[in-house]
Amino acid sequence: MDRRNILRLMGATAVAAQLPLAAIAKAAEVKKKGVMLMNRIAPSVSELYIANLDGSNERKLLTDSAFDYNATLSRDGKWLVFTSERRADGQSDIYRARADGSGIEALVNTDSMEDAGVLSPDGKTMAFVSTANGYRANIWVRDMASGKVKQITGIGKVKGTEGKPDCYFRPTWSPDGKWIAFSSDRNTEWTGHDQGQGWEHTQELSIYIIRPDGSGFRQVISKKGYCLGSPSWSPDGKRIVFYEMTVEATWGARRPNYIGKAYSQIVSVDVATGKDRVEHTTGTDLKLQPQYISSSEIGYLIKYGPNEGLAYTSGRAPVKQTFIRSPSWTPDGKSVIYEKVAFKPVRPLLKPLFSWDPEWDYKHIDVYPLMSRDGWIVYTDKQTGNSSIWVMRPDGSEKRKVFESSGRGLEEAKVRMGLAGAFQPCWSPDGEWISFGLGYWFAERNTMTAALWRVRRDGTGAEQLTDGTLHSGFPSYSGDGKELVYRVWSQKEKGLRILNLETRQIRVLTEGFDNLPGWSPDGKRIVFTRRRDDGNYDVYTIRPDGSDLFRATDHESSDGHAVWAADGRIMWSGSQHGFRDEAALYEQTFQQYGQIYIMNADGSNKRILTDSKWEDSMPLYVPAT
């Protein structure tokens, strides 16, 4: 199915208003303006496997393996439906193959995110998730004979409160093919972790059902303060099984250091009443994605911890194996399909990514990239190294390390975990100096410290600029190179400060929960992220003298990590279009739903630049030479 089919089926005018430029101008030959570098947090490897229920006879499933995930087998055992990014890194489409892994063909391959496809019992219809028509994850159905698609959630009466979370995930068919069950965060709140204090969101899900024609929508079960996800039907169609965890646990469920603290249970209820609740498990394992294998046995995934792998409610011996995900037991009850994910080998620098903008190529880079006026890139090698500072040409040539984070008194274990090191380097206007923060980052800031440093571009002259009594970091040079704006964090003092590099005097710019400041190219304004009293994070700008505070984003979701484009526009990472999947299923990521946006400095002309399943952030436009 191509983009023209979607435009015809949904109305070209409505879709064109929502989709990135690439979706409506793909056919036109556009001269590239250059490359947009960006960072993506996502596994670099995901391959499909099949094995016996006890884990024996494991083998790769596809004859042509790529970055593949979320596979299911049709009821008749003939077709495998799966998600793949084989078109390009970050562009998820839905494919099918024969049961032996041959004959791979695309089923839905638009420029939107498509995922979680599953065939109806009779094989005539496929339910799947897509972000087409508004960038939010919704349930769609595809007629397998004609290829026609139809959106059945996020429209009409099946739509949540405007501005709130309103996405729909993990469709699954009833045995008679008359209903589709799914999870949704509709009519919930944008809530940060740690009781609303954190930047990253938690997720509250309930279980719903709907007919494939979009009628009969109703809630099966909801539990305030809990996440109920990945529903699956019993063989007789009378019960639905799901995982249940607290909303707060959906944050820890994607953080391996929360083992034993973020846990869940496998629960089933009567579909007709939402009652007759049965808890099938106990204990503190993180249990996800349950499925009835028979009327008396449920299989499920244990994520992280000493029992990681596949487990069963029947007493069948578990299959302990790390980093297997998204299990799907075959209809004959004899095999299980799953993916194996990994972050190594790491996604290499300058790896091409899918571009949603025909005027720019997209490529991957490590964190906090910034370009000097003479065309050099500086960045922190958090994913590819040990959070040291590197410089290189935009094409990757002449790459060299200019500051080594190890040997600076930091705990090496924290450095290896990406919780300590040299972060967010920035160029002085003359290109002679690179300033950065050195110390402990993220949650470590509550108990540990960091200081501002600088080093010459050739790696000499490293010196500490602040005394380290406060947690100081994320610097940015003024237009004349005489000052640095940066963020401080302590129990007594927070906000933005400006350091005069000649006098070493420090003045207070703001005293709020402010972070990630950046001086505009013309030197007239500073952009930063602020956490408001209501817990919402937004992008602000302010003059260097503290006047004219301006709020550039005002959505209830989190916006931040803003940077200036060379032309004076602001690029940032935002979450207003919501999660693209159940939060607990994501792998070792923070704000996994984050997409990259761009706007004018006055907040006008906001536009989305990515539409992937993953966390995208830290963009940098590098013009063609």
Description:
- By secondary structure, the chain is mainly beta.
- The chain folds into two domains: about 40-340, 6 Propeller (Neuraminidase), CATH 2.120.10; about 350-520, Neuraminidase (6 Propeller).
- Helices cover about 5% and strands about 40% of the residues.
- The strands form twelve sheets. A four-stranded mixed β-sheet has the order 26-27-1-48, with no helix packed on it. Strands 3-2-25-24 form a four-stranded antiparallel β-sheet, with no helix packed on it.
- A hairpin with a 5-residue loop joins β36 and β37 (about 485-490).
- The chain is elongated and about 75 Å long.
- Residues about 1-20 and about 20-25 have low confidence and may be disordered.
Question: How is the quaternary structure best described?
Answer: single chain
- Which term fits the overall shape? elongated
Largest sheet: 4 strands, mixed
- Spatial sequence of strands, sheet with the most strands: 26-27-1-48
> Overall pLDDT, averaged?
93
In the CATH scheme, what's the topology name of the largest domain? Neuraminidase
* CATH homologous superfamily grouping of the largest domain: TolB, C-terminal domain
Family: Belongs to the TolB family.
Keywords: Signal
Pfam family, one: PD40
Protein name: Amidohydrolase
Question: Which helices and strands, and how do they pair?
Answer:
Layout: H1 3-10, H2 12-16, H3 21-25, E1 34-41, E2 45-52, E3 59-60, E4 68-73, E5 79-84, E6 93-98, E7 105-108, E8 114-119, E9 125-130, E10 138-143, E11 149-151, E12 168-173, E13 180-184, H4 193-196, E14 206-210, E15 218-221, E16 226-233, E17 239-246, H5 249-252, E18 265-270, E19 278-279, E20 286-294, E21 297-303, E22 309-312, E23 319-320, E24 324-329, E25 335-342, E26 352-353, E27 360-364, E28 367-371, E29 377-380, E30 389-392, E31 400-403, H6 412-416, E32 420-427, E33 433-440, E34 450-456, E35 463-464, E36 471-477, E37 483-489, E38 494-500, E39 506-508, E40 513-519, E41 526-531, E42 537-542, E43 550-551, E44 559-564, E45 570-574, E46 595-599, E47 607-608, E48 615-623
Parallel strand pairs: 1-27
Antiparallel strand pairs: 1-48, 2-3, 2-25, 4-5, 5-6, 6-7, 8-9, 9-10, 10-11, 12-13, 13-14, 14-15, 16-17, 17-18, 18-19, 20-21, 21-22, 22-23, 24-25, 26-27, 28-29, 29-30, 30-31, 32-33, 33-34, 34-35, 36-37, 37-38, 38-39, 40-41, 41-42, 42-43, 44-45, 45-46, 46-47
